[in-house]
Amino acid sequence: MNLQHQVLLSLGSNQGNKLENMRQCIAALHREVGTVIKVSSLYESPAWGFESDPFYNCVLLLHTHLKATKLLKKILKLENKLGRVRETSIGYQARMIDIDIVAFDDDCITADNLQVPHPLMQDRLFVLQPLQEIVSNWVHPVSKLSITEMIAQCNDQGSCEKISKLENPLDKIDLSNYSYIAIEGNIGAGKTTLTNKLAEDFNAKTVLERFADNPFLPKFYKDQNRYAFPLEMSFLADRYQQISDDLAQFDLFKDFIIADYHIFKSLIFAKVTLAEDEFRLYKTLFDIIYKEMPKPDLYIYLYQNTERLLQNIKRRGRSYEQEIPGEYLEKINNGYLDYIKTQKDLNVLVIDVSERDFVKNQEDYDFILNQIQQKVNT
């Protein structure tokens, strides 16, 4: 099940510098609305339904957490920002940029200002041909026709010619040399959310920590002294077992894996929670296990200040976490930062997300993508 909505958008322009209009629109959509996953080639076609200059067209696949109605509002605002002027007269008009929602998941939506799938898509070659290029297996949720079948039945007599390639902003982030990325952070930092989001956007497989299955966790938050050692030992055993099992299913030379933890977190938490003699025993066992574990090609640490962590913990509402003191979170954070300073052979990227919400705000997620891009390029 996808955490993000998959949206197909059709873009068109027949005024001004049409190519630049299209490029700016794609970049703005990616920066402000949702993650652009695929972009078709640029097509040229005559004006449809009225006399005017030819259009440049393309179709793109977008990932977004926005609902369809909120997405439409964002798109209309972006059109206006990019110079679209909507006249009050009835009928088709020339325009700097036009963005239509062609499909939203497999939903069928009928509202005052939105109908999905787009009611005229099957009549427009300038939608169908670029659509076939990027999602050839897509099937219309109402008619159940494939794109190939819709093209064969389309009565559009106008030409639709492919004229050039268009750049996808996501292609700037070349992760081809990475097979294993670990995303870490304090409790409530958003590491699992970011892991799932990146995995969907970059078509990666995930390894997610099974924290909810640990029976000692609720007990630990009620009586830390009593349950610290069994908790940390059970976490270590489970993480070792999970990483061994999950990574064994993948080919690190072919598959791309993103995990929401690195096993070294076990030592960081243990150092905070265990008494000195318990920690010495724990570290002896950990060092044996750690030698066998594969190391990530990129280690991303999401830093959030304590106040924001406490807000996130409260918001997600896990009952056993609600009494976590800020002092404990600060100790964990310091443990991570001390660990990072000592890791000379680990490719580390620290991203401060204290003032960012990379789920609700696409600009904040784009910031994270840019940080990753800069790291990859260094």
Please provide a written account of the structure.
With 378 residues, the protein is α/β, with parallel strands linked by helices. The chain is built from twelve helices and 13 strands. The strands form three sheets. Strands 1, 2, 3, 4, 5 and 8 form a six-stranded antiparallel β-sheet that branches. It has a five-stranded parallel β-sheet with strand order 10-11-9-12-13, with helices on both faces. Strand 6 and strand 7 form a beta hairpin. Helix 1 packs across helix 2 (68-81) and helix 7 (224-249) runs parallel beside helix 9 (276-290). The radius of gyration is 25 Å and the shape is elongated. The mean pLDDT is 91.
How many helical stretches?
12
Tell me the overall shape.
elongated
Strand pairing plus helix content: what structural class?
alpha/beta
Distance N to C terminus: 35 Å
H-E order: EHEEEHEEEHHEEHEHHEHHEHHEH
**Taking all residues together, what is the mean pLDDT?**
91
Q: Work out the strand percent.
A: 15-25%
CA-based gyration radius: 25 Å
Residues in helices, as a percent range: 40-55%
The major pleated sheet works out as: 6 strands, antiparallel
E-strand count: 13
Low-pLDDT segments, ≥5 res: none
Keywords:
378 residues, alpha/beta, elongated
Write the SSE topology.
Elements lengths: L4 E9 L4 H15 L2 E5 L2 E4 L9 E10 L3 H14 L16 E7 L4 E2 L4 E2 L8 H10 L12 H7 L7 E4 L15 E6 L5 H12 L2 E3 L8 H7 L1 H26 L7 E3 L5 H9 L2 H15 L7 E6 L2 H11 L9 H17 L5 E5 L9 H16 L1
Parallel strand pairs: 9-11, 9-12, 10-11, 12-13
Antiparallel strand pairs: 1-4, 1-5, 2-4, 3-4, 3-8, 6-7
